[in-house]
Design brief:
mainly alpha, about 425 residues, 19 helices, elongated, single chain, about 70% helix
Length: about 425
């Protein structure tokens, strides 16, 4: 039987069969990393009914491409079972009494179909608890212990999404999948694999769109902004952070707006737009005051200590004697808050970044010895994230320029930086990128 439902969805978008195949391939590649070879003939076979139940990855991709919550809406069904709304088993004239039985059976079939689900409230509750725990542990727990758990949870959510749920349950699963892909994106960025991080982030955006979850969508933009910043693309980083502000929830909905504004300020400063950076920094401080509780803690939240660290980095990039002194104050405040907080909420990566900002500020003030004292806090770590390694190398380049080039203390600090950045990064205690 021809699949008229799929054909209607395609015609509604005025796509050719080849265009549908291209969209499906892109979605599968973003979700799995595989590069499938599908063409218009494959879509034609679907619409003719020659294929009624493609593999799970392809079904999930088709649902994402056409923005539906179940395969049934696309006329897909396992072999041996009739699709909902298919050819009725009883065809009777309207005046035939048997037509009442046929109508009743159709309603009963719809009720059975609507009640069929492979998840329940307890399963969703457990997934929520797992995401909350992993997000919290990500900040301070050695990541090699978390990576298998993140991967296992993602695989289980993806498996369930290949089945059937109520629409609200499907949306809930997509939110969970989005947060878990966000954790996977952070893993990749910390390892310095920007391509993998970008793939995970695009999947987060897709999950957020399907689930219509504004906070997840805004967080995804904040992560993409973060990745663009560390790639040196400051204009894109600022634009992505600004886009997230337009897509995110309103005021009082958590710290996401403060995060996005802080990211934008830092990127504007790095780009050389000092006026916009300072103005946006003020807006970020106002957003912090108006912020409500976050939906998730840990890596998905934006604690006050982190915001002070971003403030210090931004003011350093703006430059000038007044801003450098304010940067020292901000970075010291970040260090104090991190050290005073619970150990489980303490990000070693953020502490290292704040110490590096302080070292840079002392250098800008001509205090090489003071910079060395702050660097000693960083040198004590066994491994660094990709972003900390970038910061250390930038500082080494600064120490090799005038007026520090000839100073013995600067030469020694450069040598020490080259030594520690030559180690294998993230050997045992991977921490969050910032």
């Amino acid at each position: 039987m021809a699949n008229e439902a799929l054909r209607r969805h395609r015609n509604a978008r005025r796509w050719t069969q080849t265009q549908v195949a291209e969209h499906v391939c892109a979605q599968v590649q973003a979700a799995t990393g595989r590069d499938p070879e599908l063409d218009g003939n494959w879509v034609s076979r679907l619409e003719r009914g020659a294929i009624t139940w493609p593999s799970g990855d392809y079904r999930a991709a088709l649902c994402a491409v056409f923005q539906v919550t179940s395969e049934a809406e696309l006329g897909l069904y396992p072999k041996g079972s009739a699709p909902l709304g298919g050819k009725p088993t009883v065809e009777a004239a309207e005046e035939d009494p048997r037509s009442l039985a046929a109508d009743t059976e159709l309603s009963a079939r719809l009720a059975r179909h609507a009640a069929d689900t492979n998840v329940n409230a307890l399963v969703l509750e457990q997934f929520d608890a797992d995401v909350e725990r992993l997000a919290r542990d990500f900040v301070s727990r050695p990541l090699p212990l978390l990576v298998p758990e993140i991967r296992t949870a993602r695989a289980e959510v993806f498996r369930l999404l290949e089945g059937r749920q109520h629409p609200s349950q499907t949306r809930h699963l997509y939110v969970v999948a989005g947060w878990l892909c966000g954790l996977a994106a952070h893993v990749s960025l910390d390892l310095g694999d920007r391509s993998a991080a970008a793939t995970h982030a695009r999947t987060v955006v897709q999950c957020a769109e399907i689930a219509e979850h504004s906070e997840l969508r805004a967080w995804a933009r904040s992560f993409q902004s973060l990745a663009a910043y560390w790639a040196g693309n400051y204009r894109r980083a600022a634009d992505l952070a600004q886009a997230g502000q337009n897509e995110g929830p309103g005021s009082g909905a958590g710290t996401i707006k403060a995060r996005l504004l802080s990211l934008e300020a830092r990127a504007r400063a790095a780009e050389g737009d000092e006026h916009s950076a300072l103005r946006t920094l003020t807006l970020a401080q106002e957003a912090r005051i108006a912020a409500g509780p976050d939906e998730l803690s840990g890596v998905f939240s934006f604690p006050e200590a982190k915001q002070w660290a971003y403030t210090g980095t931004t003011l350093l990039a703006v430059g000038g004697d007044e801003q450098i002194q304010e940067a020292i104050t901000a970075s010291n405040r970040a260090v104090e808050l991190y050290q005073a907080g619970p150990e489980g909420d303490r990000s070693s990566g953020d502490l290292q970044a704040a110490h590096l900002d302080l070292a840079t500020a002392y250098l800008a003030s001509g205090e090489v010895e003071g910079a060395g004292a702050k660097l000693s806090e960083v040198f004590a770590a066994e491994a660094y994230t990709a972003s900390i390694t970038i910061r250390l190398r930038n500082l080494a380049a600064l120490l090799g320029s005038e007026p520090y080039r000839g100073a013995q203390s600067a030469v020694e600090l450069r040598a020490h930086i080259h030594e520690v950045t030559g180690r294998h990064a993230l050997a045992s205690n991977l921490t969050e990128s910032r």
